[in-house]
Amino acid sequence: MLNVVLVDDHVLLRHGLANLIESFGDYKVLFEADNGRDFMERLDKAYLPELVLLDINMPEVDGYETCLWLKNNYPKIKVLALSMYDNENAIIRMFKAGAKGYILKDCDPAELREALNALGVKGFYYSEMVTGKLIHTINSLDEKDNHVKNVFRLNDREITFLKLVCTELTYKEIADKMFLSPRTIEGYRDALCEKLNIKTRVGLAMYAIKSGIMSL
User: Cα dihedral sign for 86, 91, 93, 98?
Assistant: First the structure.
C-alpha cells in the first residue's frame, strides 16, 4: 500500500481522482491540497507519502515551485505531474524540477494506474506522449526558435522575475516583492534581454508565455 497526496486547485477533479486512485486497491490518499503552499503546510514529516500527484497551474505556489521544493527537501518523494499542458516547455520544466512522471488530465484511468505502478516499482514513468515531445524538442534545438533551449539557461530567480514581469507591477514593486534592490532588478532585466535577445518588457512577457513559464 503506497501513500499518495493530491495537489490540485480544482476540487471536483481532485475528489474524483482520490476516489479513482483508492479504487485501484494499492494506494491510500493521505490528504488533498489546494495548491503548493497548502501542501507544504500540511505535509507531516513523520508520515510522508511515497507519491505526489501535482498539478502545474495553481495559485500562490505552482507546480514547478512545489516540485523543486520537494526535490530539495524530500527527494525520496516521487512526483507525478498531472496537467492540461502537453507542450515541450512545461514537460521539460517539470522534469528539470524533479518530477519522475508526467501525464495529462484527460488520460484514461488505465494510464493513471500504469503511471502510479511504474513510479512505485521503477521510480519513473515516461509515456509515449512525453517521449515523443522530448524527441521533438531534441531534434529542434538547432532551429531558429530557441525558447525551449533558453529555458534550460534560466535560474529560479530569473524565472520568478519573468513571472512578475507579466503582471502590472512596476519594476520597483517587483524589487520589493523579490526582496531585492531596484538596481538589482534592472540588472536582471538587462541581463535577460541580452540573454534572450529581447528589447522590451512586452517582449519578456511574450517570451514567458511562449515558454510556458506563464499561462494566460
Answer: positive
